Amino acid sequence: MELNTSSSSRHSINSKAKAKAMAKIVEEEEEEEAEDFFSSSDCGCFLCAIKQPDARLRRASLADFFRELPYCDDDGGSNGQSCAAAVAAVWRAAMAAPDDPELPSLGAIRCMSLLLARALADAAWRRRGDNARVPYYAAHAIGSYTIRSAAHAELAVAAGAVRPLVALLGGAMTWVEQRAAARALGHLSSYDATFPAVARHAAEAVPLAARAASTCVADVYATFVALPPSRRPRYQRELMACGGGLGADAEDRKAEEWASQLQCWSLYFLSCLASRDVSSHAMICQDAVFLRDLSRMWGGLANGDSPAGVGLLRLLCRSPVGRAAVAACRDALASLCDLARSSDDWQYMAVDCLLLLLDDRDTWHAVADATAACLVDLVEIRQLGPRRRLGDAIASALLVDDDHVRGRELGAEAEKAIGSLRELKLERKEREEAMLRDELIKREILAKDKKRQGNDSFLNGDVGKAIDLYTEALELCPLSRRRERLVLHSNLAQCRLARHDADAAVGDATRALALARPANAHARSLWRRAQAYDMKGMARESLLDCLAFAGTWLDRRRQNKHTTRAARGACPKLPYCVARMISKQMSMTGLFAGVAMSCDKVGGDDCMPRCSEDGDGDDEDDEDDRDDDESEGEFAGNSAAGLKICTSGREPPIITEDAWRRLARMI
Question: Subcellular localization, per the record (predicted)?
Answer without folding.
Answer: Cytoplasm, Myofibril, Sarcomere, A band; Cytoplasm, Myofibril, Sarcomere, Z line
